[in-house]
Amino acid sequence: MRIAVIGGGPGGLYFAALVKQVDPRHEVVLWERGGAEDAFGFGVVFSDGALGGVQAANPELFEAVIDRFVRWESVDVRYRGRTKSHDGYRFSAVGRQALLRLLRECCEDRRVVLRFATSAPPLPELRAEFDLVVAAEGVGSAVRSARAEAFGAHLEPRGSRYLWMGTDRVFDALTFAVVETPHGPVQVHAYPYAPGRSTFIVETTDRVLRDSGLEVPDRSPAETARAVAGLFDGDPDLLGDHRLICTGSRWGRFTSVRNDRWSDGNVVLLGDAAHTAHFSIGSGTKLAMEDAVALAISLTEHRDLPDALAAYEAERKPAVERMQRVAEISREWFERVEEHVGLPLDEFTVRLLTRSGRISHRDLPLLDRAHVERVRNWFSRTLASTA
Ligand SMILES: Cc1cc2nc3c(=O)[nH]c(=O)nc-3n(C[C@H](O)[C@H](O)[C@H](O)COP(=O)(O)OP(=O)(O)OC[C@H]3O[C@@H](n4cnc5c(N)ncnc54)[C@H](O)[C@@H]3O)c2cc1C
């Protein structure tokens, strides 16, 4: 089969590597408009300390990913200058750039044709030339926009504004900090991901961003980092003497993406192009890579493309929707954090940690245990039979 993959994020790269792993006869070409080392973002956190079915599909690759993991077992809630720690969680994180490099090497080993620093050709051209077009282009997917009606796309920009930054302060837990500024509360989601580095996501509302004058489009990344650090003057211990690291000055707006249908003829959506989940539950990368696993399996199990794409959607859509429900509650909680400000630290912490209702970070590994087993068995059986 000739397969075109648009987008060299974790979803697109992992799918390209896996589909060649199970059948090297496929011809797979992947376009990524950024350079090979240009990854946006800092670290990504995996909330259950393991990668479930994603890891089971290619354990050798994940040995190298896991080698780079920073691990910890607690969540810290920092509020009004005090921190409360809760143990008993399992988290790991890795630099996004390191993860993408490993996935890229895996694609190179399997002879995926990689076209970095190149935008994908127009969709009609790809559709005509390839048997399958995988749109793994992220939240701003042009393919999804061009065929919005066919996919039944629902895009809902939310009130949550964020800047994905890094810092040289090494946090030792997944840290949620809420800092009261003169303009309203600002949240920080921080966690370590590499020696000497932590992710530091600042989240707030449109109103706080406007009133604090922080949204200045032409500011340099260094000026932006300094201006954002000023938000935390009221809690100097949060950063201490450390600096913020910024690679761009654009504040993002979290956009909820859903699609009634994930394929349209020979075009299929994968990862953030198909669905988003608010970053406060740290699952987007894993969801995109789980899509990659499911699509690679479906294409091998089903002779007809429409059957394969239907099986992929039937497997992934309900699982994704479950995570999206949890993520929406979490997003809403952070957007309405003002309602909780003023509570004593203990009560504030309990409300934050139980914000997603029935499912907490502790339960996530249980959700996909059966799925992990299925993926492990499928890949070891399929690879053994093609060896
Ligand atoms: C602030 C923030 C923090 C996050 N933190 C976490 C976290 O801790 N853990 C986690 O699991 N997830 C996290 N996520 C989510 C995660 O980044 C995404 O879910 C994940 O990157 C989705 O992977 P993807 O492959 O679908 O898309 P992307 O990673 O967005 O990759 C899409 C790629 O397609 C390329 N592209 C787009 N259009 C074209 C084109 N026409 N031609 C060629 N290339 C194109 C883009 O350059 C991009 O590299 C976070 C997201 C945000 C915004």
UniProtKB/TrEMBL annotation:
<feature type="domain" description="FAD-binding">
    <location>
        <begin position="131"/>
        <end position="325"/>
    </location>
</feature>
<dbReference type="InterPro" id="IPR002938">
    <property type="entry name" value="FAD-bd"/>
</dbReference>
<dbReference type="InterPro" id="IPR050631">
    <property type="entry name" value="PheA/TfdB_FAD_monoxygenase"/>
</dbReference>
<protein>
    <recommendedName>
        <fullName>FAD-binding domain-containing protein</fullName>
    </recommendedName>
</protein>
<dbReference type="Pfam" id="PF01494">
    <property type="entry name" value="FAD_binding_3"/>
</dbReference>
<keyword id="KW-0520">NAD</keyword>
<dbReference type="InterPro" id="IPR036188">
    <property type="entry name" value="FAD/NAD-bd_sf"/>
</dbReference>
<keyword id="KW-0560">Oxidoreductase</keyword>
